[in-house]
Amino acid sequence: MLLKDRVAVVTGAAQNIGKAIAVDLADHGAEICLLDVNGREATAAAEEINERGGRAVAFQVDVSNFDEVMALVPKVLDAFDSVDILVNNAGITRDNLLARMTEDEWDAVIQVNLKGAFTCSRAFCRPMIKQRRGRIISISSVIGLAGNAGQGNYAASKAGMIGLTKSMARELAPRGITVNAVAPGFIDTAMTQALSDAVREGLLRRVSIPRLGAPEDVAAAVTFLASDRASYMTGQVLNVDGGMVM
Question: Considering the domain boundaries, does residue 201 fall inside one?
Fold first, then answer.
């Protein structure tokens, strides 16, 4: 039980990678607070964790809304007494070529992916600072490292998360808080499952391990970074990409 008596807050936790992270953290002993803009699916995910013998509570929140997130902190502390782990996973895509990308497509992705990571980190680092212990883990992407045509907004948001991670790591290390990022590659989620066979085959040609990653692969990396086994790691980006950008 690597995370016994720890409380983890996971954003974008209703499905796919976020849900897998919440489940894996719970399986390793953490109590889980699931945050998502989709309250119904977040509640269903929390119920699944509780049925597995864990303890989980869900809250509906828009992570890009500063006031909503700040108002949520006392509710989380009332439910769990502490916050030991924050996983900034909430994210969206609005893909388009640069010459066609609208202002709304740019703003929406930056607001959720990058501002959301800032807002939640800013809100939940305070109880961590008081207890002089914590883990902040942000889910970036290999697209933030290598870029991708048609994803300028997404790449910028994920690269920004890496810069934010490194800056926070320097600020918070003296307070006993480590800050790291995980950069997934092509993960087998609802989004990739909707792609044509030809496109999926093209993705597989870009990785060394001949399969798409599973959400559980990302979750395992997050659990490691959240545990005491990673206590001397901060400011790092851990790629979970099958060798895509090695």
Answer: yes
Q: What is the pTM of this model?
A: 0.96
What's the confidence (pLDDT) of residue 192?
Answer: 78
Q: Give the pLDDT band (50/70/90) at residue 195.
A: confident
- Judged on CB neighbours under 10 Å (0-12, 13-18, 19+), 55 is middle
Report how far Cα 156 is from the mean position of its chain's Cα atoms.
Answer: 16
The verdict on residue 105 lying in a domain is yes
Cα separation, 165 vs 162, in Å, equals 5
Q: pLDDT tens digits for 91-111?
A: 999 999 999 999 999 999 999
- In DSSP terms, 178 is beta-bridged to 135
Q: Which two tokens stand for residue 17?
A: 């990678």
**Which of the residues are catalytic?**
154
Rounded to the nearest 5°, which phi and psi values hold at 241?
A: -140, 10
CATH code for the domain of 13: 3.40.50.720
